[in-house]
Amino acid sequence: MFGKRYDLFTLFGFKIRIxxxxxxxxxxxxxxxxxxxxxFYYEGLSSATYWWMGAAGALGLFGSIVLHELSHAVVxxxxxxxxxxxxxxxxxxxxxxxxxxxxxxxxxxxAIAGPIASxxxxxxxxxxxxxxxxxxxxxxxxxxxxxxxIINVVLVGFNLVPAFPLDGGRVLRSVLWQWKNNLxxxxxxxxxxxxxxxxxxxxxGLWSVISGNFVGGMWxxxxxxxxxxxxxxxxxxxxLRQALEGEPVSRFMKAEPVTVPxxxxxxxxxxxYIYKHHFKMFPVVDDGKLRGSIxxxxxxxxxxxxWARQTVDALVEPCSQENTVRPETDAMKALxxxxxxxxxxxxxxxxxxxxxxxxxxxxxxxxxxxxxxxxER
Length: 377
Known about the structure:
2 domains, 11 strands, 15% strand, 4-stranded mixed sheet
């Protein structure tokens, strides 16, 4: 979902990050407010005033989104759910939960916290706006406060649409989950609604473009594409978690994996192992002792003309928490490590002894078979 991210600050123990894509929407919001919204509703002000109003409105929206997502994160932590942090990106923000809610009540409380926070934020800005009216604050300042009150109400309305992964979809999932006591069924229903809502926004976007509203239409189209993709991915992630959670790595690992000796050249590694077995990572064993691993990524970093002279021993990556797991490790934890590191395989070790290899493709193959056999009709 995210590209390059930067840490901004830490709030209540949560890292607040910003994705590079968010700068696009920040610039567009500032521009649209400065050139369109504020000049239309507040005539006669200078161009500089409109631009600082636009910048203030964008910053206020930034803060509102952070507080909305922070409310999700605080309530999630209150119920013991692990949080990666909060990331702002082109379509808003997301509180990144590492765990699925254990009960419908937890799902409901975490989901509803965001809209409640946005309602309170809107009320706060409206209250400041009314104070400004009575005490004679500058019209430009009051205009920004009115905009922030309105936009937070709009965010509440949009987020409460019962389409996963929007907050309203999560609330609906908690209700359906409580009713049927079936998280998978509830997720399938709400993600189908989310996908349908995404398609509706795509159609709306295309119609807007045809009608002449190119910028607005493109945003509806992109938001629809994002929501549809996020809904489908959310259901797949749930299936993956339910299939793998609680299963040990030893169930999926390949015992007696192909290993390479440390003394061979990179050219021999490429010709006799990589091209022969088609793996991107191999355990390196020297005199029966596990030394670590070597991957195609490391080989690519060496000039082609050096392959015949350079040995595997010079590039071997020692065993660490990043490239190894134990046989009893939960398979879901192994998958999370594969996703975090970008690796396709992990060494399975028992102490200092290599006992197998766990591969991403084997986990996904198991998931595909399990879903096919246990699909609910």
